[in-house]
Specification:
Layout lengths: L2 E2 L19 E3 L9 E5 L1 H6 L4 H5 L1 H7 L4 E2 L5 E3 L3 E3 L2 E3 L7 E8 L5 E7 L14 E2 H16 L6 E14 L2 E12 L5 H9 L3 H14 L10 H23 L1 E2 L21 E2 L23 H20 L3 H30 L9 H14 L4 H8 L15 H11 L3 H14 L7 H14 L3 H10 L30
Parallel strand pairs: 1-4
Antiparallel strand pairs: 2-5, 3-11, 6-7, 8-9, 9-12, 10-12, 11-12, 13-14
Length: 490
């Protein structure tokens, strides 16, 4: 496939393509029959130095569909491996995603631009390399919601229908492609791919590349690879603390879905909790509850152990010393996670200072929420509103806890007002609730109606707006609306 001079002007500055050939497979997207635009993220396009109107043009839509390759792009599929539900798979790679290239954003950060659902690659393992509308709209809404919530994440730049159908268990479904933006798509599994092949030169090249791209301060350390491990541990500890603080369950925390940059990546059977339960699982394929809500910190650390093992030869020539150094870094994960988690959870209950027993107070609230099957998002929001009918009011299920909270905050008017303001800044009114996500997908597939998608997207990208307190999007599902399982759907 050739490039076109009519395609949108994108200032590509590609670096991953310059790595050794074993890092990727060069190929172009597979054309589709009748591309049609569903959504453009104007603000993100402008941040990347791209004119959003050029993406709406026929040439822009052709590029977003993979029918043409823009000037300066070097399309490729990335190689990686990974542990999937704890089981080692030596070769995975981009089976339906093609990296067009990289741009430097207005913030000076390097970003990947990737087409997801752009056709088969050498890593497709017999798959068709395509996506249908459901997973594309789900990832678009959830990733943009996460960004609005302040959680590190990949972003959605655009979504297009392909005009073709893809065959899934449900039968033929309308095809779609998501244009995804990320600080990079490098994963723990990328390192594992080369470690499994004993390709030490590739590991060294990848370490240097990641340090330069994501953690340049590590280059100045006595042992740069060890400093890299420490930086990735910190990024992952912060990320998982964010997930826990908003009731988000990733669903497939495989090592190939563990981002080196510390971003949320690969939105498959993910979900936000409604009623709080520490052992909540939504993913239909997580039959052993490996990736339940309460397990996410432990799994993140397990993934990081696998990352550390890839770097051991770069820590010290003496194997025992290398293991000791790695273990010291891994052991710091718990402390860092708890530190980030407490900062976020203190803000959620309006605590601007720190006391030693704050974790006990927070845990007591969560235990009561679980006992009484209370909505995770709504309960924290109610604490900041002090309604006569909420569970914190006299006679309510959380009233005794509320009295302990008042003693901690201080029950004078100034202290309560400061706590209220902090809570309202820290607790979203709106999250992308599962039943609403499923409803907007159903409308798009059944009726070709994108209005529910557009309305939900608008709501979740302004999650702290008080105007949403009266919105239908803030209402938990009724018993017959509950979604108890989510699916990869690819």
């Amino acid at each position: 496939m050739s490039s076109t001079t009519d395609s949108p002007s994108i200032a590509f500055d590609n670096s991953y393509a310059a790595l050794a050939p074993e890092f990727h497979q060069r190929l172009s997207p597979t054309p589709v029959s009748q591309p049609e635009l569903m959504a453009i993220n104007d603000a993100l396009a402008l941040h990347l130095g791209i004119d959003p109107e050029s993406l709406r043009s026929s040439a822009g839509i052709s590029m977003l569909a993979g029918n043409t390759v823009p000037d300066g792009a070097t399309p490729l599929a990335m190689a990686y491996a990974g542990h999937q539900f704890g089981n080692w798979v030596p070769q995975l790679g981009d089976g339906r995603a093609i990296l067009l290239g990289e741009v430097i954003g207005r913030d000076g950060v390097r970003y990947d631009i990737q087409l997801k659902g752009a056709g088969p690659t050498p890593f497709s393992r017999g798959g068709d390399g395509r996506n249908w509308i459901g997973p594309v709209l789900r990832e678009y809404v959830l990733s943009e919601a996460m960004a609005a919530l302040g959680v590190p994440t990949t972003r959605a730049l655009a979504a297009v229908k392909t005009g073709d159908h893809v065959m899934r268990e449900q039968g033929p479904l309308p095809g779609a492609i998501l244009t995804r933006v990320a600080r990079s798509h490098i994963r723990v599994g990328t390192f594992q791919y080369f470690t499994a092949r004993q390709n030490h030169a590739a590991i060294e090249q990848l370490v240097q590349y990641v340090i330069k791209r994501h953690y340049p301060e590590a280059a100045q350390a006595d042992v740069p690879a060890l400093a890299l491990l420490d930086a990735v541990i910190d990024a992952q500890a912060s990320l998982i603390a964010h997930w826990q603080s908003i009731g988000f369950i990733h669903g497939v925390m495989n090592t190939d879905n563990s981002s080196i940059s510390g971003d949320t990546i690969d939105y498959g059977p993910c979900a936000f909790m409604d009623d709080y339960s520490a052992d909540k699982v939504f993913s239909s394929i997580d039959r052993g509850a490996r990736y339940a809500y309460q397990n996410q910190p432990r799994i993140a650390q397990w993934n990081l152990v696998n990352f550390a093992q890839c770097l051991l030869p770069l820590f010290d020539e003496d194997k025992e010393e290398a293991v000791r150094l790695a273990q010291e870094s891994i052991n710091r994960f718990d402390e860092r996670f708890i530190g980030y988690y407490l900062t976020l959870m203190r803000a959620k209950i309006g605590l601007a200072d720190e006391k030693d027993d704050d974790l006990t107070l927070i845990s007591a609230l969560l235990n009561l929420m679980q006992t009484h099957s209370l909505d995770f998002t709504l309960t924290f929001r109610q604490l900041s509103q002090r309604s006569a009918t909420d569970p914190f009011a006299p006679g309510g299920k959380l009233h005794d806890w509320h009295r302990s909270w008042l003693q901690r905050v201080g029950d004078d008017a100034a202290a309560l007002e400061a706590a209220t303001q902090l809570m309202q800044r820290s607790n979203p009114v709106i999250i992308p609730r599962n039943h609403q996500v499923e409803a907007m997908i159903d409308a798009a597939v059944r009726d070709g109606d994108l209005a529910p998608f557009e309305a939900l997207l608008k709501a979740v990208t302004t999650p702290f707006d008080k105007a949403h307190d009266e919105s239908d999007f803030a209402v938990p599902p009724s018993p017959d609306e509950r979604v108890t399982q989510t699916f990869c759907g690819t």
